[in-house]
Write a structure and sequence with these properties.
Elements lengths: L1 E4 L12 E2 L2 E2 L1 H13 L4 E5 L12 H18 L3 E5 L3 H9 L4 E4 L8 H8 L3 E4 L17 H18 L7 E4 L8 H9 L1 H5 L6 E3 L4 H7 L7 H13 L4 E3 L3 H23 L1
Parallel strand pairs: 1-4, 4-5, 5-6, 6-7, 7-8, 9-10
Antiparallel strand pairs: 2-3
Helix pairs in contact: 1-2, 2-3, 3-4, 9-10
Length: 270
């Protein structure tokens, strides 16, 4: 899954697709083409920064950033377009212009989002976040991070099924970096098989995250090696989708990991 942020303030690539503060399709489409050529199979379009301390935006601002990008990508490329949103209005509008997946960091908890997502018939990724972006990194605490995240996600799955979703439409994301300390993130990745055992595909986003900075002492622009290491570990522990900024490098790293796992799997079953 390739990251395509249409925001001015995302932690890694904020403003890359803007000209004079406005979305530029002349930047969006070449970037999308590049990611697909490098091996991405899903393009994740986001219009609201959810980095720690991010400033909230209006629904109209998000619509203005996301919908033109989704429509243009859908008209130009044969790919799955994911929309990283929590807003009912954006969910509905994005589905109407070609989105194929809803990726919600708030797990459809925002008012109207669950009903809107169910009405689209699209698959949804439900993510765990403790608190909200403005405050989520202020001393996050868990009795057991894996158990707590699992319980929350299963509760959101229950709500989705009650709203009419089929289980096959749902994916789960443990929410690395969203209301978690470095220790919480390490524990989640190490125990990822417990989350995979819940029975739903896992989406993992660790690309360029602050955990790499904490462990390696690297700034955002120097976190490629750390990102690739975490992607490989995530695949080894059961992740289905890897959300990444550096597509070609991540595709190569994951392909090598998958080749080793495919070779060892039959032996492991004997």
């Amino acid at each position: 899954m390739g990251v395509l942020n249409t925001t001015p303030d995302s932690f890694s690539d904020g403003g890359d697709l803007l000209v004079d503060g406005c979305l530029s399709l002349d930047k969006v489409l070449p970037r999308c083409a590049q990611m697909l050529a490098e091996g991405a199979v899903i393009i994740d379009v986001g219009g609201e920064s959810t980095r720690p301390g991010a400033t909230p935006i209006s629904v109209q601002q998000e619509l203005d950033r996301v919908i033109p990008a989704v429509a243009a990508i859908a008209a130009r490329f044969d790919t799955i377009i994911s929309v990283d949103t929590s807003s009912a209005e954006v969910i509905t509008a994005a589905a109407a212009v070609g989105a194929g997946l809803i990726n919600d960091v708030r797990a459809l908890e925002r008012s109207g989002a669950l009903k809107a997502a169910a009405a689209t018939g699209l698959p949804v990724c439900l993510m765990h976040m403790q608190g909200r972006p403005q405050t989520m990194q202020l001393a996050p605490s868990y009795s057991d991070v894996v158990e707590n995240v699992s319980a929350y996600l299963l509760d959101r799955v229950r709500c989705c099924k009650e709203a009419g979703f089929d289980g096959s439409q749902l994916l789960l994301d443990p929410g690395f970096g969203f209301g978690k300390s470095a220790e919480h993130n390490l524990s989640l990745l190490n125990r990822l098989p417990q989350l995979r055992a819940l029975g739903y595909p896992l989406l993992v986003g660790l690309s360029r995250k602050s955990i790499i900075g904490r462990v390696l002492g690297r700034e955002v622009e120097d976190r490629l090696v750390g990102s690739l290491s975490l992607a490989v570990l995530a695949v080894d522990r059961g992740a289905t989708i890897i959300r990444a900024h550096d597509i070609q490098q991540t595709v190569d790293a994951v392909a090598m990991a998958a080749a080793v796992l495919a070779e060892s799997a039959p032996e492991a079953l004997n």
